[in-house]
Amino acid sequence: MVKFFFLTPKNGLFILMLALTSACNNNSTGKVSNVETQNTDTGSLVPISKPLISEIYTADPSAHVFDGKIYIYPSHDIESGIPENDKGDHFDMKDYHILSMDSINGKVTDHGVGLDIKNIPWAGRQLWAPDAAYSNGKYYLYFPVKDKKDVFHIGAATSSSPAGPFKPEPKPIAGTFSIDPAVFQDSDSSFYMYFGGLWGGQLQDWRTGKYDSTGKEPNPDEPALSCKVAKLSKDMLSFSEPAKDLQVVDKDGKPILAKDSNRRYFEGPWMHKYNGKYYFSYSTGNTHFLVYATGDSPYGPFTYQGVLMNPVKGWTTHHSIVEFNGKWYIFYHDTELSGKTYLRNIKVTELKHNADGSIETIDPYVKK
User: Fold this and answer.
1) From CA 212, how far away is CA 208, in angstroms rounded?
2) Is 267 part of the annotated catalytic residue set?
3) What pTM was estimated for this model as a whole?
4) Whether residue 360 lies in the annotated active site
5) Which CA distances in Å does 105 have to 49, 70, 246, 270, 350?
6) Active-site hit among 84, 95, 267, 363
7) Which domains are assigned to the chain?
8) Would you state the torsion angle of the CA atoms of residues 125, 199, 60, 89, taken in this order, to the nearest 10 degrees?
9) I want to staple 284 with a disulfide (CB 3.0 to 4.6 A). Which of 90, 141, 224, 289 is the partner?
10) 10 Å Cβ neighbour count for 10?
11) Residues 60, 77, 205, 363: which is the catalytic one?
12) pLDDT by residue (tens digit) across 6-27?
């Protein structure tokens, strides 16, 4: 099938069309092998950072500082042998590997499998992008997976170590649906979960409050679908309230519309706090930007501010932002190792806040 990759340096737009074929290697372990690499040469552009790990394919990195180290909770991409489609069936992940780093440029340790889908009682298929948190003397891993009826919900698992292994709860968190959980700890130690993703992530199927597999996105001139947010209970295994819509508005206070593909929410939420402001960042999905909006509350509303990272090679974009030793970093992924949209590799680069609080736009590729 044909896919489009959008690479957008500051001085122009490059559109690179690649003919992608179905996976030729059925590498169910997810180990990096001699896969056929597509031609992703952009001429004079080179990546600003290298893959953090090359032994396995990794994506959607959620980074946190625990015990003075950076721990990364990524998706584990594998060759599924499933043809690509807009619902993401080819992203048929089976487990999570947990990684750690003592320093940004230091060695990356793979702690092995932290959670396997076969150990989740209610799981059916597709173990997608996770996140983690620490509270109550425990570490919590939050993960989206389809149940046995092929509907996404978000589960929780616990461990005494940030490296796992994690033991899953017997049922998903009540009131959860869709994908991409991101857990934020506020200054008062309250925790909030942000979640939701369109298309294969099924967010559009929950517009009425109940699951409908034929759910549609809003009309172009209607407000865009939004990320969901809910405060976590003290036990970190349930919500203390029903999930709410998180609204992103323009600088005139008007909701971002569904037709505004360069600014509207699609998937991959993340929250961080800087100088007392809440920064909500997310992927625009099929336009491949990472953008951000700011607000005065973890619930929003959030005012759209701009692009924090231009598109990477590969169809998806998913990130996390973390402070470490006085600097801020963004963890993200592209397809440098494989050239395939579904076999990705995680990366990291510095993220800079300007004096006015805005974020400096990052180009993931620069001229040689």
Assistant:
1) 8
2) yes
3) 0.89
4) no
5) 11, 11, 35, 23, 11
6) 267
7) 2-367 (2.115.10.20)
8) 40
9) 289
10) 9
11) 60
12) 343 333 333 333 333 333 333 3
